[in-house]
Amino acid sequence: MTLGYVLRRILVSVPTVLLVVLMVFVAIHLVPGTVVDMMLGTQNYLTEEQIRQLYAQYGLDKPLIVQYFAWLKNTVSFNFGVSLRTGKPVLQLILDRLPVTLELAALSMVIALTLGIVFGVASAVKRNSFVDDIIKVFSLIGISSPAFWIGSIFIVLFSGLFTEFNIFGYVPINRDPLKNLQSMFLPSLTLGLMICAQIVRVTRASMLDVLRQEYIKTAMAKGVSRTALIFKHALKNALIPVVTVSGIQLGYLIGGTIVIENLFALPGLGRLLLQAVNERDYPVVQSIVLFVAIMIVALNILIDFVYTLLDPRVELK
Amino acid sequence: MKRLLVAVVLFASVVLLASGKLTIAVDVEPVGLDPHLVTAFASHRILENVYDGLLRFGENLELLPNLAESYEIPDPYTIVFRIRQNVKFHDGRPLTVEDVIFSFKRILDPETKSPAAAFYQDVDSIEAVDERTVKFKLKKPMASAILPNFAGVNSSIISKKFFESGKNLQLETNGTGPFYLAEYVAGNYIVLKKNPYYFVQGQPVLDEIKFVFMPEELSRVAALKNRDVDMAKISEPLNVRQFSADKYNIFKSATLSYYLIGINTTRKPFDDPRVRNALNYAINRDAIVKTVAFGEGVVTGPMHPSIKVWALPPEEFEEYKYNPAKAKELLAQAGYPSGFEFSIVTSARYNFDKVAQVIQAQLAQIGVKVNIDLVEWGIFIKRWRESDFDAFISMNSGSMEPDIQFYRHFKTGGSTNVFKFSNPRVDELLELGRSTVDTEKRKQIYSELQRLLVKESPVIFLYCANQFFVADKSVEGFKLLPNESLIFLRETYKK
Questions:
Q1: Per residue in B269-296, pLDDT tens?
Q2: Interchain pair A44, B216: CB under 8 A
Q3: Partner A contacted by B168 (CB < 8 A)
Q4: Residue A296 — pLDDT band, cuts 50, 70, 90?
Q5: Who contacts B459 (Cβ-Cβ below 8 Å, separation ≥6)?
Q6: SS3 for chain A, per residue?
Q7: Beta strand pairing status for B463-472 and B297-299?
Q8: Distance, CA of B372 to CA of B343 (rounded, Å)
Q9: Which residue, among B381, B371, B302, B384, has the nearest Cα to B340 in the 3D structure?
Q10: A54, A92, A202, B17: which one has the fewest Cβ atoms less than 10 Å from its Cβ?
Q11: Which of residues 184-213 of B touch A (CB under 8 A)?
Q12: DSSP assignment, residue B88?
């Protein structure tokens, strides 16, 4: 039953992923300036003939549709090609960078969910109090501030106040976990706060909604303790919209990593994507988008499972 | 005894100096590692410490022997290099004359598509005279003009055997330089380590240099303050002011790269040289240096004023004395008494957009309306290549050698003459300059050329900005070169 559901979801996702990749393929090729232009810059010494040869070497002299299907054919057989600028295999480039971005996304999500749910619940329980007002103001600031701005403020603050704290210098987690977490702290806090603001608001609204329901009053009348009432009876039911929003926020998170990885000099997928777009490194751009699209689809399927955990009435058919 | 003591102390201090690891934050990551192919500045900065050319630049960009221990120009058609003995590549193989010849054959092979091929297109033959001597025969008498190219990264000497063993030079390096590439984590850092075989005694001083890639200037400033790095490239003069001279060493130098307005000389009204010349009079360069570069730059003519051998100082050009009245007069003569409107294409990098805004305001004073067309860099390059602009603002790298500085930009049909500029006298002077050996005669030729270029104004030369590296107080021995090279890292040490 569930396996059937997953298979069906995967099948339905294939056209979505293909469409996303096609759109990105067309977009990056329609932007003026090719990889050859970027390589030569404005200090070009090559003859027209040599430039033509470079186009041929990269297969850019063929019609776009031919290029697309050639790429698709290779990709389906797990041949992601090589980067046009650095000559490195694309798959290796992506796999090298993926752990950084996954860690950043996971840590940000942990921070966002923890802070978001705690403050959201507090805000709902203490409705219209001073605490509620403060939380509302901060979540509004969080929603309206771009991540690069929050990140910049953190960098300036930390470099001025905590000179002993190493903001930069990423090392992989398996090499030095402590140093890794130190270099990941500010970037994940920045991204986490950005997403947290949204979660606070949804948690608050959803909690308020649940707290007004009859069964809560019944539980109260039966003498259930306040803590059990809030966390066991109310929160669990209030979490469904929070999970939905978190799923959507994951998409934003991937976008946010581009900015944050650049700012904090983290060697992740977002920074690779930005470089590749700037350099018009087509195979790298396309493959990263493919990876991200697949990741988001997979996460969405995962979120469906979380619904069943939260509410036994939900059934995956 | 006393002498012995001094010797011991000297030896000890050398040993103490000789250890050390330096971490440098740079803005851009290299794009590829093949010295004959790389075009990115960032790749040059790494590779110039890994590979050597036959010649190299000194502190004032004078040409010095390098892998060639000496060279001579017996006649304007011939250059003879005497190759240094006992030089080893990083893999331990000795450098031979064969490697030198192979390197230049590879550069000149059209299959390689090396940007350096254009430098050597007038080379007729390259041959080994004996086991230590290589002779270049030229088709044109331009031995002096071609010489500085031998110091460029794109003319590095590679190992023939290493290449022929099927190595991909974009991914693997094997040079003769002071450092070898020990580790490269894409998107994060590059580690260079001391080459134990390096042929210069006592160099490099450092054991290890780590280049960390940090695209955001804010991050580089913070990393330096927090001592996450020892040294950082800082681009904005305002950011440099955050570092006080008593706590940090501030390395500063002029650069040969110049900001320019490039003009499409075939589009109306710029097909009339008087209109282009009018812009030259109407632009106040000092104001641009003050507002955009916070005074950290110098106004430049067609060549950087510090290159005293060739450059005419900016004061010698009538056009450089800000004179809006004269500009209006020229416009009236050309038939535009009430001005005109045109657009400047530019991109938001290296402050091009800010330069454009100042120029927009300045030209408004003479009734010329400028529309700034701000585009992404890739789009800019495409429009630049196709001469799809009225005018553009950008930066060109400069050279000490007038032929390299001018020929390809201003010769009719030149490879970077996107201005579509054509002037018979300019063409004549360019050919004459590259084929004349006598320095005095060349000076006369290039003086006339510089005057003509300012008068004809296919390009409006603006200014050269200063460059900065800020380092911890313990970092010494480093020097910045006007061509932005980092070769002095081999003499850098930490106290």
A1: 999 999 999 999 999 999 999 999 999 9
A2: no
A3: yes
A4: confident
A5: B260, B261, B262, B263, B409, B419, B453
A6: CHHHHHHHHHHHHHHHHHHHHHHHHHHHHHCCCCHHHHHHCCCCCCCHHHHHHHHHHCCCCCCHHHHHHHHHHHHHCCCCCECCCCCCEHHHHHHHHHHHHHHHHHHHHHHHHHHHHHHHHHHHHCCCCHHHHHHHHHHHHHHHCCHHHHHHHHHHHHHHHCCCCCCCCCCCCCCCHHHHHHHHHHHHHHHHHHHHHHHHHHHHHHHHHHHCCHHHHHHHHCCCCHHHHHHHHHHHHHHHHHHHHHHHHHHHHHHHHHHHHHHCCCCCHHHHHHHHHHHCCHHHHHHHHHHHHHHHHHHHHHHHHHHHHHCCCCCCC
A7: antiparallel
A8: 6
A9: B371
A10: A92
A11: 185-188, 212-213
A12: B
Q: Which residues pair with B22 in a beta bridge?
A: B209
Are the C-beta atoms of B341 and B368 separated by less than 8 Å? yes
Q: Supply φ then ψ for residue B165, to 5 degrees.
A: -80, 10
Other CB atoms within 10 Å distance of the CB of residue A61: 13
Residue B281 exposed, middle or buried by CB count within 10 Å (0-12, 13-18, 19+):
buried
B381-435 pLDDT tens trace: 989 988 999 999 999 989 889 998 999 899 999 888 999 999 999 999 999 998 8
Nearest chain B CA: its distance from A16 CA (Å): 29
Q: Give ipTM to 2 decimals.
A: 0.84
Distance CA B228, CA B247 (A): 15
